[in-house]
Amino acid sequence: MIKEIARLKEERQAIIVAHNYQPPQIQDIADFVGDSLELSRKAAETKAQVIVFCGVHFMAETASLFSPHKTVLLPDLEAGCPMADTITGEDLRREKEKHPHATVVCYVNSTAEVKAESHICCTSSNAVKIIENLNGEGEILFVPDKYLGGYVASVTGRKIHLWPGFCPVHAEIKAHHILEKKERYPQAQVLVHPECTPEVIALAHRVLSTGGMIRHVKEDPGKVFIIGTEVGILHRMRKENPHKTFIPAWEEAICPNMKKITLEKVLASLETLSPRVKVPETLRLRAKRAVDRMLGS
Ligand code: 13P
Ligand code: SF4
């Protein structure tokens, strides 16, 4: 199957990109593995005609914003993000009426419709910088992740109105999980994702995006790390740092949507050039502005 994927990839002039939470066998066949920001950049610059996106729906949509003439494939269309789906474009329009002077910042984990209603997009790796760069003392409306938005508010001191969305996977990582692991591995550094709850964030040495964690464990002299995010990331950490030890904060932090992508589905999708994700042109132009502002800032 892996050989056939490689052959078809060549034939179709395709690139396979995968998020850090993808199953190990998918990460291993991907041309590029990364966090949301790295994947948006990759999608924006690749010359490949076909992008096989191994991740969830909003990521494939973001790739489609940059590549209207390319074929963007999501091997399973059911791979969604429940946090992104907590808010529609209509909900956001209503929310904007309540805060007419607020600058709208959307986390990249959002639909194209929501991006189209937003001033600027951000990812977990640049959220603090994006908010710091917003001029003045004006109000901010942040959607859809209340934990990431709350974390950014606490770091920057800015007034942020929060939409009550959150990631169900990260919200299930509890403070007691971290405390138990800290007791067993007292020398370990605790790295957590900003989608975690404030109680978990308070126990961390560092709060990082998945890409930030990958870089940190490589560069830091530390040997043992407790990782507070989706467990798929441990595969890459262990592969790239065979002499270091990585402990999941909670073994069951598994995103079922990320795991919907399988080798069978990647192969089928290269064979049939489907299922495709394509953002309609008028929506694409409106949604792309928010992502362009992010990439340019
Ligand atoms: P990052 O890879 O940007 O840290 O995002 C995590 C995530 O939950 C993506 O769905
Ligand atoms: Fe969405 Fe959470 Fe899964 Fe990321 S880990 S795709 S935020 S549900």
What is the element layout, followed by pairings?
Blueprint: H1 2-11, E1 14-19, H2 24-29, E2 32-34, H3 36-45, E3 50-54, H4 57-66, E4 71-73, H5 89-98, E5 103-107, H6 112-116, E6 120-122, H7 127-133, E7 140-143, H8 146-156, E8 160-162, H9 168-171, H10 175-184, E9 189-192, H11 198-201, E10 206-207, H12 210-219, E11 224-228, H13 233-240, E12 245-248, H14 263-272, H15 281-296
Parallel strand pairs: 1-2, 1-3, 3-4, 5-6, 5-7, 7-8, 9-10, 9-11, 11-12
Helix pairs in contact: 1-14, 3-4, 4-15, 7-8, 12-13
Question: Which oligomerization state do the chains in this entry correspond to?
Answer: single chain
* Ends apart, CA distance between termini: 41 Å
- Contiguous uncertain segments of 5+ residues: none
Structural class: alpha/beta
- How many discrete structural domains? 3
For CATH, the homologous superfamily of the largest domain is named as NadA-like
Output the CATH topology of the largest domain: Rossmann fold
Helix content: 40-55%
**What top-tier CATH class of the largest domain fits best?**
Alpha Beta
- With strands numbered from the N-terminus, the spatial order across the biggest sheet is 2-1-3-4
Taken as a percent bin, the fraction of beta residues is 15-25%
Order of helices and strands: HEHEHEHEHEHEHEHEHHEHEHEHEHH
Q: Helical element count?
A: 15
What's the shape? globular
CATH architecture of the largest domain: 3-Layer(aba) Sandwich
List cofactors, ions and other ligands. 1,3-dihydroxyacetonephosphate, iron/sulfur cluster
What's the short version?
The protein is built from 15 helices and 12 strands. The chain is α/β, with parallel strands linked by helices.
